[in-house]
Amino acid sequence: MRKTLIAIAAAALVAAPALSENISDPEEILTARHGYMLLLANQLAPLGAMAKGEMPYDAATAARAAASLAALASVDTSMLWAPGTEEGAIEDSSALPEILSNTADREARFAELTTASHTLSAAAGTDLEGLKAAMGAVGQACGGCHKQYRKSE
What we know:
This protein is mainly α. The protein has one domain: Four Helix Bundle (Hemerythrin (Met), subunit A) (Up-down Bundle). 71% of the residues lie in helices and 0% in strands. α3 (59-73) runs antiparallel to α5 (103-124) and α5 packs antiparallel against α6 (128-149). It is elongated and about 45 Å long. The mean pLDDT is 90.
């Protein structure tokens, strides 16, 4: 079931840029963005738990989660950052307005996440030390963007 859900969500996100001209409702775009972030978090959860020693290392689980994370990080998310979806313009958004206007920086940060996720994907299924070493760059990519562009809670 989990694999099917991830496959459907990933397919929808891959197709999203082609459909983006038809999706203009900020609520729908925000829902898609939140869904995308939840998918990323869903794959990061077991990887982070293994790296912290909160769950036993399992090579197969780590490899699957890291491969899914790399696939998700490779998706074109440009349609998820439309005007009207920033904090202050719509309820439940924590995206600062700067993320919408700083397109080049946003894309560079997503490229960092993509690179780090692919590195993690190559290392996660080998051993715990490889997983731990590669998780740092993923955490830095996520945290750097959130620190810069997400409203503090």
